[in-house]
Structures are given as structure tokens and as C-alpha cells.
Design goal:
about 500 residues, alpha/beta, Aldehyde Dehydrogenase, Chain A, domain 1, Aldehyde Dehydrogenase, Chain A, domain 2, seven-stranded mixed beta sheet, six-stranded mixed beta sheet, globular, binds nicotinamide-adenine-dinucleotide, binds manganese (II) ion
Length: about 500
């Protein structure tokens, strides 16, 4: 089936999508729209109402009202849990359409989109369960005092998300926040707003009351910034680039909002001499080329022990060249499109800078020509060798299908190179020596360490960074704490009245 036929057969595909504010599908205040394109073909997918500051204000007031005077946070936990399960089952019933819509909006390959929609569903199921066990504590106190804590929802949350995993990022944000009783205003990326809007509609259908989930696609600099500075917003949860994260943290400090940041990365992938060669080659390929390299935890720095370097790299490059770029809806496609021309230019700029610095291109190295998809945005899976650690291509996040490969001579050097970065999100270790895996895992400064494993993001598993990759953990139980305040209640139960002033 061609992408055009799929566009026509997807039931969630419309020509126009609304904002969701206070339980209603609405136009933007000035009628402005965003056009969203299919990155695989360059074709228009749909127009979307583009939120303005006035719309953001309406959304904040709706979220505030729902939180301050609404019923959602007062529901028994079981009832909120049930609504989260309803959201998941409606998503499941529209699985195929959600996958197709996500592919149309992002150009990602079928398997990639399927996995991400599945995970978004599981996130709601996970938090439907997790919330039931989320509770305060009873603490030992001296004398006749009693202390317990309550976990109270933090309030109105602005949730700003990027374009690389639209539905998954929306689920990571919405599910834990509403599970604890917060209200949210989600600002999807302008390039990929469609599945977040549909998810907002599904929340309403599933029984989330009006105002609890609001979706306002619009400009980051306008709507995102407005939400970050709004005095009636209690928390900002942001996933995106490190510079914008820093800007948000500064601005949110004005009103001392709670902030969690999931930012960029430049994650190391360490292959030791005793690693299973095939498993480490395949896992390393996936680690960088999954989602066309547009992943915050992409293992974009590949370090291989000198004893196996030649053999490993030969296999790695051979397989890189076999990766199929093509119709994202085809099962056989490994690598999908790049989000837009701007991102292709960014990627190509990095590759050109590496060449100018004297690096060697072992595979790829330029925008890809994909037959039948000439109007789209594509980049060849690229392997760069002969680099040094000061090069931009080694230190900066590229956010594309580009990996740099380097040698190391021992464990100590591997750790030193792995940590020589301002980021600290993901990392991977390939070795059959369990003691070494533990030693290296302990030394790596990153929020995630994958041992003989290419996957890290699964519901229940903490996801987040060290250093300039941000702070806060998503996708796990701990996330619930980050959407709550702890209230400590101290009481006295002695029979003699207290007389602290001694009068
Ligand atoms: P981006 O920072 O440009 O944009 C992210 C979001 O922030 C978008 O919705 C954007 O509109 C909004 N925004 C932009 N300027 C803003 C401002 N001044 N105030 C408030 N909001 C603003 O990032 P992107 O290009 O969409 O996404 C790619 C980046 O996201 C990469 O750096 C990647 O590493 C990071 N990322 C991190 C994770 C993680 O979990 N750590 C996951 C996915 C992506
Ligand atoms: Mn799009």
C-alpha cells in the first residue's frame, strides 16, 4: 500500500485537528494553524489549530479550576486507576490507526512506531497499577507524637514534549501526572502534534473530567514559554534539548515551580574483547540507528577494545550498509525518515565538520536518495572513524543516524572516555564478564546502563539523566513522587496538655 492510500484509510486521519481545552475541541483564538507534513514524502498530512498565549491562558484556567474545585483528584484511587485502564483499552482498540497516524506525522518505520504505541499503552496500564500502591509513610516519633505523610498532587503541570517520540512522550507525561490527581497542559512539538491530540480526545472518552487534560500545540517560544512563566502553573515537566531545558529552568525559578528535565545525550557504547560479537554488533546497530538516530539515549559513541576492533568494525559497517531505508509502512524498512530538512542539514553539518577535521567516513555520510520518496527527508546511516575526543562530532548531540567509533585498550580507559562528556543519559556495556559489567556500570556517570542489552525504556524502569542530561526520572514508580508534594502531619496524643511556653 502506498503512503497516500494509508493516509486515506486511517480512521484517525483528518484534514483538521483542534486544540483540547476544558474538555472541548476548540479553535485557536486567532484562527491560526500549523501545517504538519509527512517527513517520508514531504506531503501535507493535516492542519492543526495553533495555540496562542490566549489559548494557553484558557488552558491554564481550565486546568486550575479542574484541580482546585474539580472531582478528579478527589476520586478514590481505584476509580482513577480504572480510568487509566480505560484510556489504555481505547488506545489498544485503535492500535493500528494510532501506529499509522504516528508514522504519517513522523516518517518513522513501522516496527518503531508499533513499539512506541505499544509502550504508550503500557504506560497507562503501568500507572493504573502503580498508583494503587503509592502512599505516604508512618514515621517513628519520640514520646506521644504521631507522624504520617500524605502524597498530594502537585497541581497544574505544564508538559512540554519533543518531536522524536510524540505519543510515547505524551504518555510518559500524562499518565503519572493524572494518576496522582494533577491537571495537565500538554504542549506537543509543532512538527508532530497529531497523536497527542488524539490521546487527549481518548482521555476524555475514557472518563477523564474536563480540564484535567488539555492539549495545546503551538510555538515553544510563545506557548511553551508562557506556560513556563505562568504563576498558576505548579510544575514544568520538559523533554527536549539541553539549551531549552536550561532556559526553562531559569524561567521556572521565578515562581519556584517544580521542574523535571529530560534533555539531550551523547551516550557511550562499550564493547569489550570478550563480548559476544554478533549480539554486540546487532545491539550497537540498534543502539544508534533505531528511530533514525533521533533518540536522546542513542548510543552515538561506540568504543571497541583494540583486540577486536578490526573484526567488530568490519561486521558493523557491513551491516550498516545493509540497513534498508524505504517506505516506512513496509515491514522490511529498518530506518525511517528524518523529521525535516532542517534536521537533515544539522546532521550533514556535523558530518561535514568531521570530514574537515580529518575523520574518515566508513559508511553513509550524506543525505540519502530513497526511491519513491524523493520529496522526503532522509540521511544515510553513517559511521565515522579516525576521530579524536575534542571533535564536535564526538562531544555534541547530533540527533541523527551518525555514530563515531573509537578504540580503547583497557577498562580504565574505556570508563574515562565514556565519562568524557557533559551528558549522562544512556550507556551500554557488552561483555561476558559479569564482574567487569558491575565494575564498569558502577563507574559510568549516566542515569541508564544497559548490559548486553539494547533496550532501556520499559514501563517501571527509571529513565532520566545525570549531568547535563537533566534530572528527574520518568516511566517508573519514582515519577509519582515527582508529581506529588509530601505533606507531613504531626499530632500529639498525650493525655496531659502540652505547655511549651512553660507558663
Ligand atoms: P526542543 O528543545 O527544540 O523542543 C522541545 C519542546 O520544547 C518543543 O515542544 C518546543 O516547542 C518546546 N520549546 C522550544 N522552545 C521553548 C521555550 N523557549 N520555552 C518553552 N518551550 C519551548 O527539542 P526537539 O528538537 O523537539 O527534540 C530533540 C531534543 O529532545 C534532543 O536534544 C533530545 O536529546 C531531547 N530528548 C530528550 C529525551 C529524554 O528523555 N532525555 C527524550 C526525547 C528527546
Ligand atoms: Mn509531521
Amino acid at each position: 500500500m502506498s503512503t497516500q492510500q494509508i493516509v486515506e484509510s486511517t480512521s484517525l486521519k483528518r484534514d483538521y485537528y483542534h486544540l483540547i481545552i476544558n474538555g472541548e475541541k476548540v479553535e485557536s483564538s486567532n484562527g491560526a494553524t500549523i501545517k504538519t507534513y509527512n517527513p517520508a514524502t514531504g506531503e501535507l498530512v493535516a492542519e492543526v489549530a495553533k495555540a496562542t498565549k490566549e489559548d494557553a491562558e484558557r488552558a491554564v484556567l481550565a486546568a486550575r479550576e479542574a484541580f482546585d474545585h474539580g472531582k478528579w483528584r478527589k476520586y478514590p484511587i481505584n476509580r482513577r486507576s480504572q480510568v487509566l485502564n480505560n484510556i489504555a483499552s481505547i488506545m489498544r482498540s485503535r492500535f493500528k490507526e494510532l501506529v499509522e497516524l504516528e508514522i504519517l506525522d513522523t516518517g518513522k518505520s513501522l516496527d518503531t512506531a508499533k513499539g512506541q504505541v505499544s509502550q504508550a499503552i503500557e504506560d497507562f496500564e503501568f500507572y493504573a497499577g502503580a498508583i494503587v500502591g503509592h502512599r505516604g509513610t508512618v514515621n517513628n516519633m519520640p514520646g506521644q507524637f504521631h507522624n504520617y505523610t500524605e502524597k498530594e498532587p502537585v497541581g497544574v503541570c505544564a508538559q512540554i514534549i519533543p518531536w522524536n517520540y510524540p505519543i510515547m512522550m505524551a504518555a510518559w507525561k500524562i499518565a503519572p501526572a493524572i494518576a496522582v490527581g494533577c491537571s495537565v497542559i500538554v504542549k506537543p512539538a509543532s512538527l508532530t502534534p497529531l497523536t497527542a491530540i488524539i490521546l487527549g480526545e481518548i482521555c476524555l472518552e475514557a472518563g477523564v473530567p474536563a480540564g484535567v487534560v488539555n492539549i495545546v500545540p503551538g510555538s515553544g517560544a510563545e506557548v511553551g514559554d508562557y506556560l513556563v512563566q505562568h504563576p498558576k502553573v505548579n510544575k514544568v515537566a520538559f523533554t527536549g534539548s539541553t539549551p531549552i531545558g536550561k532556559d526553562i529552568m531559569g524561567k521556572a525559578s521565578e515562581t519556584l515551580k517544580r521542574v523535571t528535565l529530560e534533555l539531550g545525550g551523547k551516550s557511550p557504547n562499550l564493547v569489550f574483547e570478550d563480548a559476544d560479537l554478533d549480539a554486540s554488533v546487532d545491539g550497537s546497530l540498534y543502539g544508534i540507528f533505531y528511530n533514525s538516530g533521533q533518540s536522546c539515549e542513542a548510543r552515538s559513541r561506540l568504543y571497541v577494545h583494540e583486540d577486536i576492533y578490526d573484526e567488530f568494525i568490519q561486521k558493523f559497517v557491513e551491516k550498516t550498509k545493509k540497513l534498508v531505508l524505504g517506505n516506512p509502512f513496509d515491514k522490511g524498512t529498518h530506518v525511517g525518515a528524518i523529521i525535516d530538512q532542517g534536521q537533515v542539514d544539522v546532521i550533514d553539518g556535523y558530518v561535514k565538520s568531521a570530514i574537515a577535521d580529518g575523520a574518515e567516513i566508513l559508511a553513509g555520510g550524506k543525505p540519502a536518495a530513497v526511491k519513491g520518496f524523493e520529496g522526503g527527508y532522509w540521511y544515510e546511516p553513517t559511521v565515522i572513524a579516525n576521530v579524536n575526543h575534542e571533535m564536535k562530532v564526538v562531544q555534541e548531540e547530533i540527533f541523527g543516524p551518525v555514530v563515531v567509533v573509537m578504540k580503547f585498550k583497557d577498562e580504565k580507559e574505556a570508563i574515562k572516555l565514556a565519562n568524557d562528556t557533559e551528558f549522562g543519559l544512556g550507556s551500554a556495556i557488552w561483555t561476558k564478564d559479569g564482574a567487569r559489567a558491575t565494575r564498569v556500570a558502577n563507574e559510568i556517570q549516566a542515569g541508564i546502563v544497559m548490559v548486553n542489552c539494547p533496550f532501556s525504556a520499559m514501563p517501571g524502569t527509571p529513565f532520566g539523566g545525570y549531568k547535563q542530561s537533566g534530572f528527574g526520572r520518568e516511566l517508573c514508580i519514582e515519577t509519582l513522587d515527582l508529581y506529588t508534594e509530601t505533606k507531613s502531619i504531626v499530632s500529639y496524643y498525650g493525655s496531659r496538655p502540652l505547655n511549651p511556653m512553660g507558663l
